[in-house]
Amino acid sequence: MNDPCMSDAMSDTSANAITMQSGSLAPIQESNLKKPLPKDYSIPELPTLLYTELNEISKIFHETGERKQFSRKHLTKLLDIIASDVSKYTLKPSSEYVIKIARTLVTKYPALAPSEDPYSKWINRLNDKFRSLRNQLKKVQGVESVAGPREAVERPGPKNRCHSMFRGV
Question: Is 134 exposed, middle or buried (CB count within 10 Å of its CB: 0-12, 13-18, 19+)?
Fold first, then answer.
């Protein structure tokens, strides 16, 4: 069953599966991935709790200069929202665009910037997030390509090498 139309349908399904599995990512459609990235990046609308925590941290930073720790849960959520927004266009943004996202984030919320290098930590986090998203998508596609009918998958050698050793084969 090597129908090229089926493989396209499977890749669309696997892309949707990965986005639905993570819960926060928008469905990735191949037609969307062909749209160019916006020239200037703007942070998408944030959930109320996340927005409130970011504003509280920013307020403390502006009043006292103290950098309050951003919760791990909200950090993950923020990265998910940004990845979801960018994945409408591409799963592998250029390094220049990742820098642009980091600059936008740190400019809007300066309290999130570490004191030593304001952008490198966010650039690394964003790159890790996009890499993780691509790897998850590859895993889902790999599982679906093998999960077809058994007769379509040919495997050389004995079915179970471990048991065949003990049977004297």
Answer: middle
